[in-house]
Write a structure and sequence with these properties.
The chain has 241 residues and is of the alpha+beta class. The protein has 2 domains: 162 residues, Ribonuclease iii, N-terminal Endonuclease Domain, Chain A (Orthogonal Bundle); 65 residues, Double Stranded RNA Binding Domain (2-Layer Sandwich). The protein is 54% helix and 14% strand. The strands form 2 sheets. The chain has a 3-stranded antiparallel β-sheet with strand order 3-4-5. Strands 1-2 form a two-stranded antiparallel sheet. A hairpin with a 2-residue loop joins strand 1 and strand 2.
């Protein structure tokens, strides 16, 4: 039993949230309070004296640190001969924002979010942030070892070992392809914003005036690289590493 449940006089269970956690993470929580908070965006949180009291932001902070530790532990044990610099590069590929957004969407987090955005646009980073918050909730509920096992299992389903080895410069390779076959490429920034001190870009890649790739990232360069990767896959271009 986790310490959070030990001191809780009554366990609170939301059946819908319980079913979602079971489907997404593979176990049935006895208390869903933490998980409901992890899914609650600041737009739907309660404000007391101008402070958000039950949003997922604190859990997101915790989950970010836990995820870093999980990936560091995994890479440290898997790649015994690699130096610190290479391990750091590998870790950054896994925990980058666009990757977390994608994983969050694959788990169906977007359908479970508690949001009150009004006329504001739903941004992909909200899903990635909730993914981190859920990892924080898992850690508080299940402890580090169980959380590590659950997260690694999910990441392996998403191609974890391929992600850490993905060193292809898709943008350069796609440029070479376009030169060879006389195709025109154009990258268009379709969204750019700053959120909590971090930048977010979404870029569309046009090939002969038709969109073939859409990528997001914390910089314009990374968003273009992800758009080029999607376009390469859509156009069945297989660049050599």
């Amino acid at each position: 039993m986790s310490w959070t449940n030990w001191f809780s006089p009554k366990s609170k269970v939301d059946k819908h949230a319980q079913a979602f956690i079971k489907k997404a993470f593979g176990y049935t929580p006895k208390d869903t309070t933490l998980y409901l908070q992890a899914l609650r965006h600041s737009s739907a949180a309660t404000k007391i004296n101008s402070q958000l009291k039950n949003s997922n932001e604190r859990l997101e902070f915790l989950g970010d640190a836990v995820l870093d530790s999980i990936i560091a532990h995994y890479l440290y044990n898997k790649f015994l001969s690699l130096p610190e610099g290479e391990l750091t590069k590998m870790k950054s590929k896994v925990v980058r924002r666009d990757n977390l957004n994608m994983i969050g969407y694959s788990l169906g987090i977007v359908e479970e979010l508690d949001l009150k955005l009004g006329n504001q646009e739903m941004h992909d980073s909200i899903v990635g942030n909730a993914m981190e918050a859920l990892i924080g909730a898992l850690y508080l509920d299940r402890g580090f070892d169980d959380t590590r096992e659950i997260v690694i299992r999910i990441l392996k389903k998403q191609g974890l070992d391929n992600i850490v080895h993905d060193d292809v410069d898709y943008k350069s390779k796609l440029h070479e392809w376009s030169q060879k076959y006389k195709r025109t490429l154009q990258y268009k920034v379709v969204e750019h914003r700053n959120e909590n001190g971090s930048s977010f870009y979404k870029v569309s890649l046009m090939v002969d005036d038709h969109e073939h790739g859409l990528g997001s990232g914390n910089s314009k360069k990374s968003a273009e690289q992800n758009a080029a990767k999607m376009a390469s896959e859509n156009l069945h271009i297989r660049p050599q590493k």
